[in-house]
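Example protein as discussed:

>
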Amino acid sequence: MDLDVFVTAHRTEWDRLEHLLHRGRRLTGTEADELVALYQRTATHLSLIQSSAPDPMLTARLTQLVARARSTVTGTRRATWRDATRFLTAGFPAAVYRSRHWWIPTAVLSTLLAALMGWWIGTHPEVQAAIAAPEDLRRMTSPGGEYETYYSSHPAASFAAQVWTNNAQAAAMCLVLGAFLCLPVIWILFVNVLNLAVGIGLMSSAGRLDTFLGLVLPHGLLELTAVFVAAGTGLRLGWTVIDPGPRTRRSALAQQGRAAIGMAIGLALVLFVSGVIEGFVTPSGLPTWARIAIGIAAELAFLAYVYILGGRAARAGEAGDLDATERSAELPAAA
C-alpha cells in the first residue's frame, strides 16, 4: 500500500471527523450519522495502516481520533451490579472453560511431576540431607512438627488473609508474566510443584504421608486448581505472542490480555475460598475425613461451576472478553 496516496485519499475524512468531534453535543441528526460513519471508516483505515504500512505518527493520530470518536459514539459507560453478575455467571466461568485445553494438561503434568519428585526425595536419603540437616528434618516431620503447626501458627482470620494474598499474587504473576514467552510462568509453576514435592517426600520418608495429605487436601485441591488455571492461562497468553493466528499480534494479545485480567479477578475470589478453608478448616479439630470431604466438595463445586455455567456460556458465544460494542474495530490480518 502506498501510504502517501492513502493519506491523500482519506485526509479529508479524518479532518472532517476531527471537526465533528470538536463540535461535541452540538451536532444535528445528520451530522451525528456522519460522525458514526466516519468513525467506522477511520477505524478501518487504522487497522489497514497497522497491518500494511505502519507509520508511528499517523498511527498515533488515528488511534487518538478513533478513541475519541468511539467515546463520543458509545458514551461513557459505568460498571453496574448487572455487569458483576454477568461476569460471575458467564464471563469468568466461560473464560476458564475455554482455556481448559491449557490448564488441564498443566494440572496433570504438574501433579505427576510433584508425585515423581516426591517419590525421589522420599526414597533417597542423600537428597533429604541436601535439603536440611537431620535434626531440622525431624523437627519438620515429627508429630507436632512444623508441617502440622504451620496451619495453626497464627490466628485463623489473619492466616487466611495472608494465604489468600500470597496465592492471589502468584496467580496474578502467572497471568501477567505469561506474555514473556511463557518462561516466568513455567518457573513459578515449578517452584510451587517443588514445594509440594518436598513436603510429600519428607513426610513419606517419616511414614506420615497420610497426615500430610490430610492437611493439604482440604484447601489444596481448590488452591492448586486455581494456580493451574492461572498458569494455563498465562501459557496461553505467551503462546499468543508466538502464534497470534489470523489476527495481528497486537490484537490477539489484547484480547487474551483482557481475558487474563478478568481471570485474575475471578481467581482471586476462588483463592479467597481456599484461603478461608486453609485458615479455618485445615487446622480445625474436625476428623481428617471431614476436612478432606469439605475440600472435595469445594473442588467439585468449582468444576461444576466451570463446566455447567461456563460451558453453557461458552457455547452461547461468551469468551470472557469485552462486548463487541466495547472493543476497537479491527480487520483480520490473514485468512
About this structure: The chain has a mean pLDDT of 85. DSSP finds 13 helices and no strands in the chain.
